[in-house]
Amino acid sequence: MKKKQWVFGLAVVLSIMTACSGKPETKIDTGMKALENLDYETAEQCFESAVAAGENAEQAYRGQGMAYLAMARYDDSIAAFERALAQSNGMVGEIEYDISYYLAVAQYKNGDPEGAYNTYSAMIALDEENAQAYYLRGSVALKSGRHDDAVKDYDYAVSLTPKDYDLYIRIYEDLLDADFKSEGEVYLRKALEGDTKMSIYQQGKFYYYLGQYEDARNSFEKASSSIDSEELILFLGRTYEALGDMNYAASLYSNFIDKHAEAAEVFNQLGLCRLKAGEYSGALEAFDKGIAIENNSIMQSLKYNEIVAYEYLTDFKKAAVLMEAYLKVYPDDQKAVREYEFLQTR
């Protein structure tokens, strides 16, 4: 449903650590806040200062690696994460697993899928019931053309967490992206048919991904009588979009926003819906309102879609200016790089 920001569906989320109440803010705290504000150069400098000041080196190098990763400086990112892991003195806990996840992302994005695969394998060796590591290793294998290895890891991840319905969906999306749609649907049907106590809402999600939009709509409509959530309204609205009813989908998004003014993702979807309907000014308005919501989790999508709206409005000069600023914050977005090259010719 949601476009993945990291490659092959890696669910890597920027974790933000703040200072404890009553304690002075550390350089690490300041660096993490800079990361939150997408100010990566300041963040990197803060973490470097934290190391020099004798603050927690493992956390400082971790943060530095995150900053380098965001700036697409993958060699530096890998080196920082490896330095962070070296601080653990052989002890492996939650933070070491977290750093390893980031390390694998950096390795993959640096053109070293084998290194990422080996990092996940090392995590699995330490915890043979780590379903997330099996899933992510499978994703790397699939992207590397190792289909059978991928399916083996996917199957084992599912066996470890058979009630993790989102896992089935992530596997489906991976296989869909790799042109194995029918295999991906097997996972969806396995989940749908294997749990007779699944909620009507969850059933709707599987129907949606299977393309059974009328069944999905009926399930979501029933669920909406007792659930008022951003995710549900997005699924319901997108289902109506898939059924061709753009006007009703837009009304669903607008009504939800009237009650939930901080629903950034709904603003984004409203904008996309209006783009499809040819309402480009309305789309731009929706994206801009989403962007105005501070610290929202989909700022990258909103800013990219804002640029697309200006392109549809044929304001290529404004789109080019915004794209230049976008690429300073998201330098590894290759689609945006190509689009910027196009805009410079207009």
Features:
single chain; 346 residues; mainly alpha; 19 helices; globular
Given the helix and strand composition, which structural class is it? mainly alpha
Radius of gyration: 22 Å
Number of H- or I-type helical stretches: 19
Summarize the amount of helix as a percent range. over 70%
Main beta sheet strand tally, sense and closure: none
The quaternary structure here is single chain
Number-wise, the strands total 0
Instruction: List the uncertain runs.
Output: 1-21
Order of helices and strands: HHHHHHHHHHHHHHHHHHH
What's the shape?
A: globular
- Average pLDDT number: 91
Please, could you describe this protein's structure?
This protein is mainly alpha-helical and 346 residues long. It is 71% helix and 0% strand. It starts with 26 loop residues before the first helix and ends with a helix.
Short account of what is shown:
The chain is mainly α and 346 residues long. The protein has helices at residues 27-36, 40-52, 57-70, 74-86, 94-109, 113-126, 131-143, 147-160, 165-177, 181-194, 200-209, 213-223, 230-242, 246-259, 264-276, 280-291, 299-312, 316-329, 334-343. The protein is built from 19 helices and no strands.
